[in-house]
Design brief:
Chain lengths: 353, 236
């Protein structure tokens, strides 16, 4: 029994488990001392959680694009963060025009809908042509090549927007009806955060049902599994791959506007960090798995918002919030080491077997 | 005029010359079988028909129309459907979803519902399992699903690639029974098989293919008695 165990476990395994165990212990110790020190009241924690959910649902929306593209093409579309940026950046000009003409004050709902429409359209078009121009000709190339192309396309789009609109940070206008807060069950919550959560959840429900229930959704899932068999059933594989990019682009465009409304700014580099975070979320949830990407996104958003205060404050770290990205990416490394298939990843590994 | 005709078809995988001057005819209402060993070019022949591999020269005609300009998914609409080797069902989708995708090209929901009824009559097992994820079906059930999925298109001609592969003898009998039923209902069938004896007993005509060339072409009964075919493909 012991001999068998010894054969299977390598030194690397033991070291990895020790690192993992140490990190877990540190987190526990940090949490206990933070709570005992009483630095934060329960309303602080609720604030952290709601902000985390809002941020996480944006990650989740972007992550669905990564995961669906991975599903059909088995590649990571590293330009997806720029698809996310391009929508709200274009929406910014519409928003400013509306704001200057007082349209946003007189017809705020209609104004917001138009901004969403423009942003989603631009993101969708960019995603569509990205696939057509940059990825389709490389469909049968070795897997490393589209990956490099994706990184190139990402830089191209970033510097295209920088060249066209400058490198400054552009502030989104304030929209009256999104300002202020609501009291929900006696808890003070920012309106915009609640709206972001509701909008993102609705969009994800629509997207999930589209993939699960419609004929096109089923065809996309079939293409993810077996392109040749799908073609033999009369499914136009290229059209389904384009559709996947279109859906991912729409989700990213909407996520971009939500992000811009919440953080009130756009700039040419704004897609990079959320893009990488959403990619992390997709891997956390099990890449290729749509509910996994959604779950991973919300989970990552929550951890990022709650963990710095909870884990690190009690350890005496002075500026814990600056370490939120470090926490997010440590999580990625830990998940990749201890559960490489991600949270909902069993089905993916079953598929590969 | 033959319903399906391959005329002097050559096909390549990169530099490998996989089909050399293959000519095959399938008339309406026939079961034609294509037999041969591993790597002889049986599956490649089917690929050139279904459009997943374009011939490097020669033509494929359906009712006199050259199929060269159509991509694989358009050829399905023309009425040729292939049950691929190894079944290739969509393992993560349910049985019902698999069948729905078989009807992907169809716009007529009423007709699809009738076709599904017919398929459930043919394969009652699929009806029992219609909510189950297809990957959890047994090999025999997966073969039924693969055939059912193909039949959802109401094909004019059905291409079967090794439907008996990897199945227990009882199930192999079932597969051939099903082929006979489909034929009796008027489906034209091109059957590719390694199980030459069963295939020739079911078919009316046969072609024997070896290293990419058709070496025999005759009535199935005569091929069954051909000494060379017996020796090479039936282990006598």
């Amino acid at each position: 029994m012991f001999q068998k165990w010894k054969d299977r476990v390598t030194v690397t395994d033991i070291v990895m488990w020790m690192i993992g165990g140490t990190m877990l212990l540190l987190c526990l110790w940090g949490s206990v001392s933070t709570i005992r020190a009483g630095l934060y009241t329960s309303s602080h924690w609720i604030d952290f959680c709601i902000f985390g959910l809002a941020q996480g649902s944006i990650y989740a929306l972007i992550a669905t694009g990564y995961t669906m593209v991975y599903g059909v093409l088995k590649m990571i579309n590293f330009a997806h963060g720029e698809v996310f940026m391009s929508g709200p950046f274009t929406g910014y000009f519409v928003a400013m025009a509306f704001w200057r003409s007082d349209f946003l004050d007189t017809h705020p709902v209609l104004g917001i809908i138009v901004i969403f429409g423009v942003a989603m359209f631009v993101s969708t078009m960019i995603a569509y042509f990205l696939e057509k121009i940059a990825y389709r000709p490389l469909r049968s190339a070795p897997r490393l090549i589209p990956l490099i192309t994706a990184i190139g396309a990402s830089f191209f789009l970033q510097y295209l927007f920088r060249g066209l609109y400058g490198s400054g940070i552009n502030a989104y206008p304030d929209i009256e009806i999104l300002e202020g807060f609501w009291m929900i069950f006696g808890i003070r919550v920012l309106k915009i955060q609640v709206i972001v959560i509701i909008a993102a959840v609705l969009l994800m429900l629509v997207l999930y049902n589209f993939i699960m229930l419609t004929k096109v959704g089923k065809a996309i899932r079939a293409v993810s599994e077996d392109k040749e068999a799908a073609a033999l059933m009369g499914i136009n594989v290229d059209a389904m791959i384009s559709t996947t990019f279109v859906i991912g682009g729409m989700a990213a465009g909407a996520a971009g506007v939500l992000y811009a409304l919440m953080f009130k700014q756009v700039h040419f580099f704004m897609g990079f960090i959320p893009g990488i975070k959403a990619f992390t979320a997709a891997v956390l949830g099990g890449i290729g798995n749509i509910p996994g990407a959604m779950l991973g996104g919300v989970f990552l958003g929550l951890i990022e918002s709650v963990a710095p205060a909870l884990f690190l404050d009690g350890l005496g770290i002075i500026a814990p919030y600056q370490l939120k990205d470090a926490i997010a990416f440590s999580m990625l490394v830990m998940v990749l080491i201890f559960r490489p298939t991600g949270i909902l990843g069993e089905r993916l590994s079953a598929k590969k077997a | 005029m033959a319903m399906l005709e391959l005329k002097n078809v050559h096909a390549h995988y990169g530099k490998i010359h996989a089909l050399k001057n293959v000519s095959i005819k399938v008339n309406k209402g026939e079961i034609v079988t294509l037999i041969g060993g591993n790597g002889a070019g049986k599956s490649t022949t089917l690929k050139t028909i279904s459009g997943t591999l374009k011939p490097s020269s020669g033509q494929v005609f359906l009712n006199g129309e050259d199929l060269a300009k159509y991509p694989a998914h358009e050829i399905v609409k023309k009425g040729i459907v292939q049950v691929p080797e190894g079944r290739r069902i969509f393992g993560q989708l349910t049985v019902m979803e698999n069948l729905d995708l078989g009807a992907f090209t169809s716009k007529d929901k009423k007709k699809d519902a009738q076709t599904i009824e017919k398929i459930f009559e043919l394969f009652p097992r699929l009806a029992e399992r219609c909510r189950q994820v297809a990957g959890t079906l047994s090999g025999g059930e997966q073969q039924m699903l693969a055939m059912g999925r193909a039949l959802m298109t109401n094909p004019k001609i059905l291409l079967l690639d090794e439907p008996s592969m990897g199945l227990a003898p009882v199930l192999v009998d079932n597969v051939f029974k099903t082929i006979k039923i489909l034929h009796a209902e008027g489906t034209t069938i091109l059957l590719v098989e390694q199980n030459a004896r069963m295939a020739l007993k079911t078919a009316s005509r046969g072609y024997v293919i070896q290293t990419g060339k058709v070496i025999f072409e005759d009535d199935a009964k005569k091929l069954l008695e051909n000494e060379m075919v017996k020796k090479a493909y039936m282990g006598d």
